[in-house]
Amino acid sequence: MTDLLYEVKDHLAWITINREKQRNAISYDAIQLFLQFLDQAEADPQVRVVCMTGAGDKVFCSGADLGRAMQEDPDTKTMMFTQYARLLTRISQFAKPTLAKINGHCLAGGTGFMLACDLVIARDDVLFGTPEVNVGLFPMMIGALIFRNVSRKKAMEMILLGEKLSASKAMEMGMITRIFPAKNFEEETQKILGALAAKSPVGIKIGKQAFHGVEGLPLDQALETLSQKLVKVAATKDAAEGITAFLEKRDPIFIGE
To answer: What is the distance between the alpha carbons of residues 128 and 102, in angstroms, rounded to a whole number?
Structure first.
C-alpha cells in the first residue's frame, strides 16, 4: 500500500497521507513521494490548487513514525530530518495555492505540514499540538513555522508544555484559517477549494512568489519590488479578462496566461 496518494480532479490536486492504521504518521517514503507529487502538481497546468489531507477521519497526521525512525541508523535519521525540512520549505514556497484539510487530530510533524500551507481548514472537534517534549524530543524544524504564525509567548507555551489544543484555541493563536462543524465540513471545504481554483493561476503565482521574495526586505525595497511585480501581473491575459469581466458584470474565465 502506498504511503501517500495523489489525485487530480477539477483543477485540484489531492495529496493524502495514506497510513491510517499508523495514525497517518509520516515515513521517509512518504516524504519522498510528497516531494515528487508537489513537482507533478507544479508542472501540471490543469492543477490550480493543492489540498493536503489524511486518510480516514481520526488523524490528519501524528508526525514522524517514531517507532520506525528510532530503529534507523544515524545517517538515515539525518537524511529523513533533512528531507522533512526540505519538504516544509517546498510547501511554504509553492507557487500555487495550498490548503491543509484538517479532518482529524494534527500533532507534531503534522503541524509543520499545515503551517507551511497558505490556508488551513479544520473540523471543530480536532486537536492540535506539539507533544515532542513529552518524549524527550523538541519540535525543531516545525518551530521555524510556528514562530512565523504564532506570538512568541503562546508558541513557547505550546512547545514547552506539550499540551493538546482545541481547534478554537488553535484558531485564536493564528494557526488555522477557518473551523467548521463535522456536519458541513466537507461541503464548506469544497466551497473554499472551488473558489481558489476559480482565481487566476498566473496572478496568484506571480503574487505568491513576490511575497516570498520580499520577506525580510526593508519597507522601501519591498514596495519597489512589489510595484514592479504588479506591472507584470497587470500585463497578463488573465488581468485583462478579469477587468473586462468586472466591467461587463460577469464572472471571469481565467486561462492562466
So the answer is: 10
Whose CA is closest to 103, among 146, 145, 61, 162?
A: 61
Strand ranges inside the chain, DSSP E: 4-9, 12-17, 49-54, 59-61, 98-102, 105-107, 119-123, 127-129, 165-166, 178-180
Taking the C-alpha atoms of residue 159 and residue 178, their distance in angstroms, rounded to an integer, is 22
Of 142, 99, 104, the residue nearest 121 (C-alpha): 99
Q: Report pTM.
A: 0.93
Summarize pLDDT for 232-255 with one digit per residue, the tens: 999 999 999 999 999 999 999 999
Q: Which domains does the chain have, with CATH numbers?
A: 4-197 (3.90.226.10), 201-247 (1.10.12)
